[in-house]
Amino acid sequence: MRDVARHAGVSVATVSRVLNGTGVVSADTRKRVEASVDTLNFVPSPSARAINSGRTFMVGALVPTLDHAIFARYLHALEEELALCGLSLVVATTGGNPELEAKRAQDLMNLGIEGLVVSGITRDPAFEQNVRRRALPVIATSYFSPEHDLPTIGYDNAEIALMALDHLVDLGHRNIAVMHGPVRSNDRTLARIDALQARLPTGAHILECPLHYEAAADLAKHVVQNERSVTALLCASDVLALGALFGLQSIDVSVPDDISLIGMEDLPASRTTSPAITSVRLPLDDMGRHTANAMRAWIEQGTRPEALKLPSQLILRSSTSPV
Q: Residue 110, Cβ neighbours under 10 Å: how many?
């Protein structure tokens, strides 16, 4: 910046104002500084900026995977809103492993992130220790728990599960099989299953399945071939619902004529299948935007956010019908 200032015949402070878009600078002075920047091929150093300001303007996000559209949609909204706030997003995946999450969090903190966004509320002790030591702002998403130590911005997982169940019950279904993803270290899925177990009759079919289309297709075929009395499949994820639909169609089982099918999350693909899949829409875009703004306020103003519950919505399509 000193070289640019000498070349343009201005002060270092003026160069800073031009580069950062702050303060009042005449049009002629701005042109001279910009010309000098181009002539000298000057590129501001992020490291120097961080040292001088004490800030990196980076926010980290930890998600279980990038394989499924639910996380891509949410991260897109989060990144877009953070950018409007002048903050950059750095993403790492954890595979749903708390120990790996703690390590990835440490890696991001070593990069100098100013805040961290995580999924769910289950953490490894090492994670909690590092966050406390650094007094790092951390927001938990995809979950609503006002009593939790971390501020949560998300939805009530038990409520969305019961929203799907109540729809099937209203249609007259009583023998309902539930397909859900792995519950180990996944408090979001566990909350959904706990709510369903409390409502479903003893002995109801509640089946765990890897979050892959092929596995869901195989399990759905097994259910209809071995449990003839089942009239509806309730899937705790649209990934499973899509796989189930493909599997049922491969053995000529008609949805919804032979069996009704409902999912959760409302992935874009669920709207375009035939039949389109009834699902509970999660507020992913709103969650990303609210989290970004809450993180900005926490970082820049020291305002810790309150827990925020975002509404979900049952989206009725043609994969469910009365018994």
A: 8
